[in-house]
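Posting this for the archive.
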Amino acid sequence: MKFRVEADCTPVEARAFLGLPDVTPLNDQMVREMSSRMGANLSMLKPEELMKSWMSLGGQAQEQFMKMMTSAAAGGLGGTITR
């Protein structure tokens, strides 16, 4: 036997009917917090800021980047790459 019920109601009405809590204030707070964190981190996406952080590490960052790219290329080719 199959029993099917369709209810035409809003999400708020459905939560109230099922006895679930209203999470709207929590959701609003989380969205505000995520927005503020994203806004704070947007400056890191600017090319000037990226270059400053990379250049502050000097040649060490460039060497690490080359090692990473070499190992990734070697893994994709199934062998080793020599420079």
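Residues 63 and 69 are 10 Å apart (CA to CA). Residues 11-77 form one domain.
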